[in-house]
Amino acid sequence: MAEKMALAKAINESLRKALESDPKVLVMGEDVGKLGGVFRVTDGLQKDFGEERVIDTPLAESGIVGTAIGLALRGYRPVVEIQFDGFVFPAYDQIVTQLAKMHARSLGKVKLPVVVRIPYGGGIGAVEHHSESPESLFAHVAGLKVVSPSNASDAYWMMQQAIQSDDPVIFFEPKRRYWDKAEVNREAIPDPLHRARVVREGTDLTLAAYGPMVKVCQEAAAAAAEEGKSLEVLDLRSVSPLDFDSVQASVEKTRRLVVVHEAPVFFGSGAEIAARITERCFYHLEAPVLRVGGYHAPYPPARLEEEYLPGLDRVLDAVDRALAY
User: Fold this and answer.
1) Which residues form the signal peptide (predicted)?
2) What parts of the chain have a pLDDT lower than 50?
C-alpha cells in the first residue's frame, strides 16, 4: 500500500508509528512539540501523544542527550532531535564519553537504545553552524551506529529500525531532501539497516554515496549515459557499520569507484572506503579510487555554498578522470 510523501513526512509517520507501537518511545528536543520542529518533522505528535511523550526541552544539547541516557537506563527508548548539525557539539561529550561506551563499560549488561536525530548538510541557504556534515566524527567512535537515508522510503523504515535497535544510533537527515517525495510502502519488508543498495545498475564505474549526494550521483549517471557511459549508483545508507561487501561486489563488476559526500574530503568517510576497497579490490581496479566532497574549510556563507557543495560538474569531472586511466 504505497503512498507518495516527502522525506520529512516519512520521518513524521515513522515516529508516529513508533509512539503508537511502544509506550516506552519518547520524542525530545528543542521545539519538537508545540512548534513541531523547525522543519515540521515532528508536527502534530505532541498534540496526539501528549507533553509527557513528545517533550519540548531547554536549549541545552548536552542536557538533552544526558537526559536521554538516563531515560534509556530506565527502560525507555528516547528519540532526541538536535535542531541543526552544528548544534550537536555541546552534546558531543555525552554522546562519545557516555552513550557510546556504556555498553562496553558494563560488560554488555547495559543497553542504550537512544536515537539522535541530526538534520545535516547544506543547500538550504542557512547561516553559520546550520549546514555542516559531521558524520565522520561519529563514525570514528566505536559503539555508535551512524546512518543516513536518501529518500522517503528509507527514512520511514530506517527510523523504525533505529528506534528498535538496542544500540545508540546517530540518524543523519539530509535537510535539503526533506521536501523530496517518493513512494513509501508501509507493508514492505525493509532492507537491513546497514545494507547498501544499488539504485542504478551500471558497468563502467561505481558512484558510492549516501544521504543528500545520492540524488546528485543519480543525476550524474543520467548525464553520463547520454555520452554512452554506464555508471552504477550505490546508496550506502549506513556510514558505520559500512557495507563494504556491497561496495566490493559493485567495484569488482565496474572496476572503478568514485565516492561522493558533502563532508570535506580530508579525513572524510570516503578516505576509509578508498583504503578498504583498494585493499580488497587491488587486482580488479583499473583506476585509483577517487573522492568528491567538500573543501577543507569552514562552511561558507549561503551565497557561496553552491561553490562549496559537490555538484554535477565535480562528480562528472571525477568520473572522466577515473575513466581516463
Assistant:
1) none
2) none
- Residue 82's nearest CA partner among 57, 102, 99, 100 is 57
Angle of helix 269-280 relative to helix 244-254, nearest 10 degrees? Answer: 60
Q: What is the pLDDT of residues 42-68, one digit of tens each?
A: 999 999 999 999 999 999 999 999 999
Is there a contact between 157 and 190 (Cβ–Cβ < 8 Å)? yes
Catalytic residue flag (residue 130) = yes
For residues 184 and 156, the answer to whether their CB atoms sit within 8 Å is yes
| pLDDT (0 to 100) of residue 95 | 98
The span from the CA of 25 to the CA of 162, in Å, is 12
CA distance 7 to 177: 7
pLDDT, tens digit, 9 for 90 and up, residues 174-220: 999 999 999 999 999 999 999 999 999 999 999 999 999 999 999 99
Closest CA to 10 of 141, 149, 134: 149
> In this structure, what DSSP letter does residue 301 have?
P
Whether residue 231 contacts residue 202, with contact meaning beta carbons closer than 8 Å, is answered with yes
**In this structure, how many other beta carbons lie within 10 angstroms of the beta carbon of residue 182?**
18
All three cell numbers of 253: 563488476
54-56 vs 115-120, strand pairing mode? unpaired
Residues whose CB falls within 8 Å of the CB of residue 306, separated by 6 or more in sequence, listed in order: none
Task: Look up the pTM and report it.
Answer: 0.97
Instruction: Say how far apart CA 173 and CA 38 lie, in whole Å.
Output: 13
d(CA 222, CA 220): 5
What pLDDT shows up at residue 1? 74
Catalytic residue among 129, 130, 261, 284: 130
